[in-house]
């Protein structure tokens, strides 16, 4: 990973393997939005830090951050040390349709999000759309998170474990409130230790996460992929079930190997946004 320090922040060269819009608007994160005063900037919060990213002609600028913040927070968050070009090339060899999907949105990267936040967000994502999920997550942070530069930090499990369903009514999460509280209680009492799940086998991760009330296979898989960086996780929602049936009949996640989660993102985005992807 090459980068340049500038007075405005840290610059990295633009590449086919890192597209801001494809990465931040593909349904894996819900805390980024366009900056009101800059048409080519997006702002977001992760790990209690606020960042603005600016798309330039040949670079992506990580605005107004130190080299230390870039190396220890944002480079890992955007998975900048992983060779997505090589991974994509190997995935494309598996199937010509997967090659089409990868070439349709080659700039998607799997974010390494804070595990507790990712778990909560995907509990809130159940039977929901991206716009509404963003609203619920925003209200959750405003009501229970600490005020920081640029907005609000994501509330800790300990903070939410002390809440009641009635306390969560202002965030308008509906039936999902009791699931969030159960997750917070399990993390707070040590029944589930998110950091330990990062190094566990995926099947064991699934089993532990599904002990949380309201967490089924899809939410567990999303938490494993987007919060724990298990890149062999393969979330299956309505779009993915339809795409797999139409485009990869008879194939399962194992077909895509150890980077099945990256393949899943290519397929999901392709099926959801390309009208010609799935024959009518």
What does this structure look like?
This protein is α+β, with helices and mostly antiparallel strands and 280 residues long. It contains 13 helices and 8 strands. Strands 1-2-6-5-4-3 form a 6-stranded antiparallel sheet, covered by helices on one side. It has a two-stranded antiparallel ribbon with strand order 7-8. Strand 4 (41-46) and strand 5 (49-55) form a beta hairpin. Helix 12 (238-247) packs across helix 13. The longest helix has 15 residues, at 130-144. It is globular, with a radius of gyration of 19 Å. The model has no long low-confidence stretch (mean pLDDT 95).
Number of strands: 8
Give the SSE string: EEHEEEEHHHHHEEHHHHHHH
Helical amount: 40-55%
Number of helices: 13
Q: pLDDT under 50 segments (min length 5)?
A: none
**How widely separated are the two ends?**
42 Å
Shape: globular
User: What structural category characterises the helix and strand content?
Assistant: alpha+beta
Task: Specify Rg, calculated over alpha carbons.
Answer: 19 Å
Sheet with most strands: 6 strands, antiparallel
């Amino acid at each position: 990973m090459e980068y340049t320090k500038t007075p405005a922040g840290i610059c990295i060269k633009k590449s086919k393997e890192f597209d801001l819009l494809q990465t931040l608007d593909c349904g894996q994160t819900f805390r980024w939005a366009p900056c009101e005063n800059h048409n080519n900037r997006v702002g977001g919060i992760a790990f209690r830090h606020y960042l603005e990213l600016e798309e330039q002609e040949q670079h992506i600028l990580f605005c107004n951050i130190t080299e230390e913040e870039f190396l220890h927070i944002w480079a890992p968050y955007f998975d900048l040390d992983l060779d997505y070009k090589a991974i994509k090339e190997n995935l494309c060899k598996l199937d010509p349709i997967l090659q089409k999907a990868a070439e349709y949105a080659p700039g998607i990267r799997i974010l390494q999000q804070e595990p507790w936040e990712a778990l909560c967000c995907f509990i809130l994502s159940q039977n929901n759309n991206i716009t509404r999920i963003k609203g619920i997550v925003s209200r959750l942070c405003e009501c229970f998170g600490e005020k920081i530069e640029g907005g609000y930090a994501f509330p800790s499990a300990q903070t939410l474990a002390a809440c009641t369903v009635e306390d969560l009514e202002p965030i308008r999460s509906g039936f999902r409130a009791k699931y969030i509280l159960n997750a917070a209680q399990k993390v707070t009492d040590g029944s589930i230790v998110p950091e330990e799940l990062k190094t566990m086998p995926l099947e064991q991760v699934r089993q532990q996460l599904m002990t949380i009330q309201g967490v089924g296979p899809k939410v567990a898989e999303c938490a494993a992929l987007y919060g724990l960086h298990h890149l062999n996780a393969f979330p299956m929602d309505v779009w993915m079930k339809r795409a797999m049936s139409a485009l990869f009949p008879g194939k399962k996640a194992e077909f895509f190997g150890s980077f099945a989660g990256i393949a899943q993102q290519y397929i999901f985005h392709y099926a959801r946004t390309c009208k010609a992807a799935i024959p009518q």
